[in-house]
Design goal:
alpha+beta; Alpha-lytic protease prodomain-like; Alpha-Beta Plaits; four-stranded mixed beta sheet; two-stranded antiparallel sheet; 9 helices; 62% helix
C-alpha cells in the first residue's frame, strides 16, 4: 500500500510569488522611512522583512524542488529540500535577532530624535501586509515544515509591527524615544522565540530523530499484538520530509506461523500505515530460531547489532518496501 501526500499546490506557489514581490517592495519603503525618521524599530523591522522575503523565495524554490521525481541517486526524492530551507530560514532569523538586539542596546546608550508619526503609518501598513501574506500561507503551513517556517516569519513580523505602532504612539505623544529601542529588543526576542521550534524540527529531521508525535514503544506494542509475532528488533522511525514518515523493523514470528509469513507481513504494514500514517515502510520477517542475534530492548537497538543483522543471512527473510 502506498500513501500519496498532497504537496502544496499551484495556488500555494502563486501566493508565495505575490508575497515575495509585495514584501520586497515594502522592505524598500520601510527602510527609507526608518532612515528618514531615525527609527531603529522601523529599520529593524525592514531587516526582518528582508529576511522574510528571502525566506519566502527559498520556500518557493524548495516547493518546486520537492516536486521533482526521485532518481537513482536520490531514491527518497527531494523531500529534504524543504527541511534544509526551513533550517536556513531559522538560522537567518537568529542572526537578524542578534543584530537587532545589539543595535537596540547601542540606541539606548546613544538616543536619537525620532519621527513618531512616520513610525505609526509605516508600521500599520506593515501589520496589514504581513497579516494578508500570513493568511495566504496559513493553509500550506499546516502540512509543510518549509511553509510553516515562512508563515512564522510573517506572523512574527505582524506582531512586531503592532509593537512598532505602540512605540510610535509613545514617541509621538510623550517624546520618550527610548520606546523605540525597547520595542526593537522585544522584536529581537520574539524572532528568537519563533525560530526555536522550526530550528529544532529541522535538525531532528536531518538527524533522523523519531518525530515528537510518535511513540516508538506504542508502535512496538501494536506490532506485538498481531497474531504470530513473537518479537521484533531494529525498529527505526524517522521523518524523510514534512509529510513523509518512514519505518523499518525486523519482526520475528513463531515457527508454526512460517507458512503465514506473508499474511503477517501485510498485517504489520497495513497496521503501521493506517494507525501511524507511515508513507514508507520496510519490514523483514524472520522465523524464530533462524533470526540473527541482536542486542535490543523493547525493539530498540542498543548497539551496532542491527547494522550487522541487516546484512545477516536469515534463512527465511521476507521484506516489503
Amino acid at each position: 500500500m502506498t500513501h500519496t501526500h498532497t504537496p502544496v499546490g499551484a495556488s500555494g506557489r502563486r501566493n508565495l510569488t505575490f508575497a515575495i514581490i509585495l514584501t520586497l517592495l515594502f522592505v524598500i519603503g520601510e527602510f527609507v522611512a526608518g532612515y528618514l525618521s531615525h527609527s531603529l524599530a522601523l529599520i529593524s523591522d525592514s531587516g526582518h522583512n528582508l529576511a522574510d522575503a528571502i525566506a519566502l523565495a527559498l520556500s518557493w524554490y524548495a516547493l518546486n524542488v520537492t516536486l521533482k521525481p526521485h532518481d537513482s541517486r536520490k531514491t527518497f526524492g527531494y523531500h529534504r529540500a524543504g527541511t534544509l530551507t526551513a533550517l536556513l530560514n531559522a538560522v537567518s532569523l537568529v542572526v537578524i535577532a542578534i543584530f537587532i538586539l545589539v543595535e537596540a542596546v547601542e540606541r539606548i546608550q546613544h538616543p536619537q530624535p525620532i519621527m513618531g508619526g512616520v513610525m505609526i503609518v509605516v508600521a500599520i501598513v506593515a501589520v496589514l501586509l504581513n497579516s494578508l501574506i500570513g493568511i495566504w500561507l496559513h493553509k500550506g503551513a499546516q502540512h509543510d515544515l518549509n511553509m510553516r517556517s515562512a508563515y512564522l516569519h510573517m506572523l512574527g513580523d505582524a506582531l512586531a509591527g503592532v509593537g512598532v505602532v505602540i512605540a510610535g504612539f509613545v514617541v509621538w505623544l510623550t517624546g520618550e524615544t527610548i520606546a523605540d529601542p525597547i520595542v526593537s529588543i522585544i522584536i529581537g526576542l520574539l524572532i528568537l522565540y519563533s525560530s526555536k521550534e522550526i530550528l529544532q524540527e529541522a535538525i531532528d529531521t536531518l538527524m533522523e530523530a523519531t518525530p515528537s508525535e510518535i511513540d516508538v514503544r506504542t508502535i512496538d506494542g501494536e506490532i506485538r499484538k498481531i497474531p504470530g509475532v513473537r518479537d521484533l528488533h531494529c525498529l527505526h522511525v524517522w521523518r524523510v520530509g514534512s509529510e513523509v514518515l518512514a519505518c523499518s523493523s525486523h519482526v520475528t514470528i513463531e515457527p508454526e506461523f512460517e507458512n503465514s509469513s506473508q499474511r503477517i507481513l501485510h498485517s504489520v504494514i497495513e497496521m503501521l500505515e493506517q494507525k501511524f500514517d507511515f508513507a514508507h515502510t520496510t519490514i523483514q520477517i524472520e522465523v524464530a530460531g533462524d533470526e540473527p542475534t541482536s542486542s535490543c530492548e523493547d525493539g530498540l537497538c542498543k548497539d551496532e547489532a542491527c547494522i550487522s543483522s541487516s546484512t545477516g543471512n536469515s534463512s527465511k527473510p521476507h521484506s516489503h518496501d
